[in-house]
């Protein structure tokens, strides 16, 4: 068992999820705050001693950049306050789409973020459903890569959907969709899309039997909702009985909420790695909490126990 006292802290954007994780773990949230300057600069601080403690800091790094910067400053402050170990819990790892040079003269943002976290002083990283598995290799510290299938699969089974098919919204999601299809014993469909530019889908076709099927489209994140709503509308036009979406990270920028509300999606199932916006139409959304998964993993990491047996696949 970990011999150092464990303490939990939250960045401002992930406070609700952190409170749920801490409650499931059976502890309490540590006291911290943020001093804000009039020019927009800010300085996080700890309101209690963390000397010699194992510190878990929970923060999803979705835009704006302030969220990532707050996490980096929290890590730096913890190291300077003589914490024994600092573990960054990043339910949604932002900048993950920049995982390679897909054209000349571009940054690899995911690698840069990994370097920044290491420079700030993280000893370990815990995250969920990375956009690309190889991002784990960008870190020179241990990475615990968790999967939301632990909450999605039981929920899908509880719906008892007949004529179920699992769909990948693009070729990149085929591996994830195949894992779900194998576990749920159902056929798989792959959508082939051609982008005219970033965040804009040109044409889309489906590979697989769509007619008369109740389809669940799987993806790790949803941003402008262009791909997912276009896929749903296309499959309904081709005779699908219903289309649902299962998405781990609801980034939901730009016209995403309006697109989902007016699309043929019956339901969109997401996790609470990123909170939904207030004051928008969320009637089609079902939010499943991943607090249990993170609390259990934190407990195992702290006690130096293996975590692989926790995951369905």
Automatic annotation (TrEMBL):
What reaction gets catalysed by this protein?
D-ribose 5-phosphate + ATP = 5-phospho-alpha-D-ribose 1-diphosphate + AMP + H(+)
Q: What class of enzyme is it?
A: transferase
SMART domains xrefs: Pribosyltran_N (SM01400)
Instruction: Tell me which Gene Ontology terms the entry assigns under biological process.
Output: 5-phosphoribose 1-diphosphate biosynthetic process; purine nucleotide biosynthetic process; ribonucleoside monophosphate biosynthetic process
Q: Does the keyword Transport apply?
A: no
Q: Where are the transmembrane segments?
A: none
Enzyme Commission number, as recorded: 2.7.6.1
Record keyword Mitochondrion present:
no
Q: Where is the Ribose-phosphate pyrophosphokinase N-terminal domain?
A: 6-121
The protein's name in its UniProt record: ribose-phosphate diphosphokinase
- Biological source species: Mucinivorans hirudinis
Q: What is the lineage of its organism?
A: Bacteria, Pseudomonadati, Bacteroidota, Bacteroidia, Bacteroidales
């Amino acid at each position: 068992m970990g011999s150092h006292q464990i303490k939990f802290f939250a960045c401002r954007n992930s406070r609700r999820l952190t409170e749920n994780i801490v409650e499931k773990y059976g502890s309490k949230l540590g006291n911290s705050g943020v001093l804000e300057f009039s020019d927009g600069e800010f300085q996080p601080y700890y309101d209690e001693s963390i000397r010699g403690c194992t510190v878990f800091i929970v923060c999803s790094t979705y835009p704006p950049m302030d969220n990532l910067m707050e996490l980096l400053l929290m890590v730096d402050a913890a190291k300077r306050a003589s914490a024994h170990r600092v573990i960054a819990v990043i339910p949604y790892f932002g900048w993950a789409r920049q995982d390679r040079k897909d054209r000349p003269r571009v940054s690899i943002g995911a690698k840069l973020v990994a370097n920044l976290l290491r420079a700030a002083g993280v000893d370990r990283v815990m995250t969920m459903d990375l956009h690309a598995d190889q991002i784990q290799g960008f870190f020179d510290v241990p990475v615990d890569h968790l999967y939301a299938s632990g909450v999605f699969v039981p929920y899908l089974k509880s719906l008892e959907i007949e004529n179920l098919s699992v769909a990948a919204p693009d070729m990149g999601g085929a591996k994830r969709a195949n894992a779900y299809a194998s576990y749920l014993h159902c056929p798989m469909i792959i959508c082939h899309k051609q982008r005219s530019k970033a965040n804009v889908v040109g044409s889309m076709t489906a590979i697989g039997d769509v007619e008369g099927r109740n389809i669940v489209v799987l993806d790790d994140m949803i941003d402008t909702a262009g791909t997912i709503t276009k896929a749903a509308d296309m499959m309904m036009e081709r005779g699908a009985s219903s289309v649902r979406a299962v998405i781990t990270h609801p980034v939901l920028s730009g016209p995403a909420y309006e697109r989902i509300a007016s699309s043929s999606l019956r339901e969109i199932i997401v996790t609470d790695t990123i909170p939904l916006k207030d004051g928008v139409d969320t009637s089609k959304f079902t939010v499943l909490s991943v607090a249990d998964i993170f609390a259990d993993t934190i407990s195992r990491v702290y006690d130096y126990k293996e975590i692989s047996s926790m995951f369905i696949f």
